[in-house]
């Protein structure tokens, strides 16, 4: 195959890449595949449809500018492309409208939901599908049971859901994993709190809220006890400095500590670690009830996990095995009774030092991740694993990737990637605390409902306004989250995200609803669009729209490189803006039947691409609003 990564039946632009590469290669005296891989897409349509930076070919002997000028002369005009425009060392290629329109609209209207995807890319061996698909684990969301669901979890959920869909679109075998924060001393605290404040009935009815309430109460109790303990410690320190006896005070302190919720939590957790059946049964119940609640909410975001893993599920034997290995390979060392990893000694000064095992022998968050990465590899043999976790944990992830590498498992570490993101500022509901995703989504849906009600006549035509408000609210939250680069934080802004003006979720939904409505009102038979007279689409607006639609498969490919949802959104907004300015010029209603049908083919193709883009982002496009 001359062009191994070319899929003309799925990506119309590949037809042009092949054509340009084949014709340009002999002019430069290079291999066609060399030209093929250097052709770039353009930022704006006035720069052409494909661009060749001549210096990228690294041809010796002549100046790139001269080479570009000569190639511009020699390149033959064809049915597909005109003569290239020479701009300095760049060659700009413009696709000829008529054949492009035919290819692009046919491809979209035939491929429908598949347009933009390419399942060949996930094959282990493209020439032998029987060798199966590449496997990826995407770990995301990963909230902590009973603790608030914070903005970091929101972003992880949205971005992770998107990445999972993206890899599925390019044919990978995707395993979605939620690694719950469901282990540690705080669950001892929660269990004790439940004994004190819990109610079986409320737990079953609303586990997430109930456990959260219990957690808040017991935390308060614990905090109240902290003050006198601190005071006493201070006093002991002062007395020691003065040389006075502290025996009585120390006895008093020991008593306070013994009675404290914190100590009771530690003991309870110890019993969980030691396998106490009763403690574990209670814990299992909290966990299971919480998960069934989570599932309902994730479903609203079109997310379904394949596995609820969690810190509690990391096997103690796996931790023992890994600690042995770290000790044997000299990665870890003892330090004041604890076990640590000193990264400086291993040539990674930036990663500092990390505790692997506490003085009392108990493992930590980091310990569990180190054991877990191994266990996942043994179980799934993934080709890639992505962790979608806030940038606040950059160090934590770098540390456990490095430990994996240092202990002789670089083959695993190499396959792992941390997809990080910045903070959301000011995420709270109008009522206050966020306990789980539901609280935010409900709040934004309410706000969206208010916004919808402002337009009374329109509002009255909507059949299930509450349902639409819910979908629009979810879209609003997600689009605001995905608009910028992942690493940038943003302000959670209810007013801005629910507005129909600007590049918002509601704007995108409106664009989709409008296209759906044109289709309904046109009364054109959508099944017959493939035989429409595309040649009637002569206006520049129509041509430019077709050129944009041609780019979608490339946009998806590029997104796989950036792993930025904004790559998709930027494209969708560009496309919907082009649509908005076309409606007055490319009218459907009132046009002659043939023209009407041709324009409807264009709009239906645009709707399909918008639909595909929104679905990739995890949004549910609405037909009416
Ligand atoms: N539960 C953690 C938190 O809320 C996030 C887990 C991230 N994943 C991991 N493998 N450490 O901070």
Automatic annotation (TrEMBL):
Residue ranges of the TM segments: none
Cross-referenced InterPro entries: aa-tRNA-synth_I_CS, Arg-tRNA-ligase, Arg-tRNA-synth_N, Arg-tRNA-synth_N_sf, ArgRS_core, DALR_anticod-bd, Rossmann-like_a/b/a_fold, tRNAsynth_Ia_anticodon-bd
EC number(s) from the headed UniProt entry: 6.1.1.19
Example GO biological process: mitochondrial translation
SUPFAM superfamilies: Anticodon-binding domain of a subclass of class I aminoacyl-tRNA synthetases (SSF47323), Arginyl-tRNA synthetase (ArgRS), N-terminal 'additional' domain (SSF55190), Nucleotidylyl transferase (SSF52374)
UniProt entry tagged with the keyword Ligase: yes
Catalytic activity: tRNA(Arg) + L-arginine + ATP = L-arginyl-tRNA(Arg) + AMP + diphosphate
One Pfam match: DALR_1
Keyword field: Aminoacyl-tRNA synthetase, ATP-binding, Coiled coil, Ligase, Nucleotide-binding, Protein biosynthesis
Residue ranges of coiled coil: 239-266
Keyword Transmembrane: no
Cellular component annotations (GO), alphabetically ordered: mitochondrion
GO MF terms, alphabetically ordered: arginine-tRNA ligase activity; ATP binding
All residue ranges annotated as the Arginyl tRNA synthetase N-terminal domain in the record: 14-95
Domain of life: Eukaryota
Domain DALR anticodon binding: 508-625
Root EC class: ligase
HAMAP family membership: Arg_tRNA_synth (MF_00123)
Family: Belongs to the class-I aminoacyl-tRNA synthetase family.
Name the UniProt record assigns to this protein: arginine--tRNA ligase
Organism, as annotated: Endocarpon pusillum
């Amino acid at each position: 195959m001359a062009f191994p990564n070319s899929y003309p039946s799925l990506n119309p632009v590949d037809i042009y890449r092949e054509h340009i590469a084949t014709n340009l290669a002999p002019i430069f005296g290079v291999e066609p595949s060399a030209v093929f891989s250097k052709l770039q897409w353009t930022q704006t349509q006035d720069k052409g449809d494909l661009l060749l930076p001549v210096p990228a070919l690294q041809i010796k002997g002549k100046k790139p500018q001269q080479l570009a000028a000569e190639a511009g002369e020699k390149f033959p005009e064809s049915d597909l492309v005109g003569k290239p425009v020479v701009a300095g060392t760049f060659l700009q290629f413009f696709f000829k409208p008529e054949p492009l329109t035919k290819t692009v609209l046919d491809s979209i209207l035939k491929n429908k939901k598949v347009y933009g995807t390419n399942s060949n890319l996930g094959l282990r061996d493209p020439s032998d599908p029987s060798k199966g698909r590449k496997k990826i684990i995407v770990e995301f969301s990963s909230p902590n049971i009973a603790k608030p669901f914070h903005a970091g979890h929101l972003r992880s959920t949205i971005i992770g859901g998107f990445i999972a869909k993206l890899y599925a679109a390019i044919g990978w075998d995707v395993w979605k994993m939620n690694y719950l924060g469901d282990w540690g001393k705080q669950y001892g605290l929660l269990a004790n709190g439940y004994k004190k404040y819990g109610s079986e009935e409320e737990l079953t009815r609303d586990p997430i809220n109930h456990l959260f309430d219990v957690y808040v109460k017991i935390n308060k109790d614990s905090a109240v006890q902290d003050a006198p303990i601190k005071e006493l410690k201070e006093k002991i320190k002062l007395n020691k400095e003065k040389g006075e006896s502290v025996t009585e005070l120390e006895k008093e302190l020991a008593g306070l500590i013994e009675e404290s919720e914190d100590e009771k939590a530690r003991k309870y957790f110890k019993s969980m670690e030691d396998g106490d059946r009763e403690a574990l049964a209670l814990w299992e119940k909290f966990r299971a009830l919480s998960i069934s609640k989570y599932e309902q909410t994730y479903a609203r975001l079109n997310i379904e996990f394949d596995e609820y893993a969690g810190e509690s599920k990391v096997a103690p034997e796996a931790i023992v095995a890994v600690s042995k290995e770290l000790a044997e390979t000299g990665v870890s060392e003892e330090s004041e009774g604890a076990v640590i990893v000193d990264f400086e000694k291993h040539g990674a000064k930036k990663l500092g030092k990390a505790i692997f095992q506490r003085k009392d022998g108990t493992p930590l968050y980091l310990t569990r991740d180190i054991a877990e990465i191994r266990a996942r590899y043994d179980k799934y043999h993934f080709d890639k694993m992505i962790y979608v976790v806030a940038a606040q944990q950059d160090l934590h992830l770098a540390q456990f990737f490095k430990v994996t590498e240092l202990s002789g498992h670089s083959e695993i570490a190499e396959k792992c990637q941390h997809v990080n993101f910045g903070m959301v500022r000011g995420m709270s509901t109008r009522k206050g605390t966020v306990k789980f995703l539901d609280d935010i989504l409900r709040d934004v849906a309410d706000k969206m409902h208010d916004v919808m009600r402002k337009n009374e006549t329109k509002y009255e035509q909507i059949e299930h306004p509450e349902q639409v408000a819910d979908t629009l609210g979810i879209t609003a939250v997600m689009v605001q989250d995905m608009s910028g680069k992942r690493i940038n934080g943003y302000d959670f802004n209810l007013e801005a995200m629910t507005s129909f003006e600007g590049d918002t979720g509601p704007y995108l939904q409106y664009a989709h609803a409008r296209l759906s409505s044109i289709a309904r009102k046109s009364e054109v038979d959508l099944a017959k669009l493939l035989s429409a007279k595309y040649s009637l689409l002569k206006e520049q607006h129509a041509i430019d729209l077709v050129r944009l639609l041609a780019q979608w498969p490339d946009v998806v490919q590029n997104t796989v490189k950036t792993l930025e949802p904004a790559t998709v959104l930027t494209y969708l907004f560009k496309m919907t803006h082009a649509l908005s300015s076309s409606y007055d010029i490319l009218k459907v209603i009132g046009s002659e039947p043939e023209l009407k049908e041709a324009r409807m083919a264009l709009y239906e193709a645009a709707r399909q691409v918008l639909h595909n883009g929104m679905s990739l982002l995890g949004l549910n496009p609405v037909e009416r609003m």
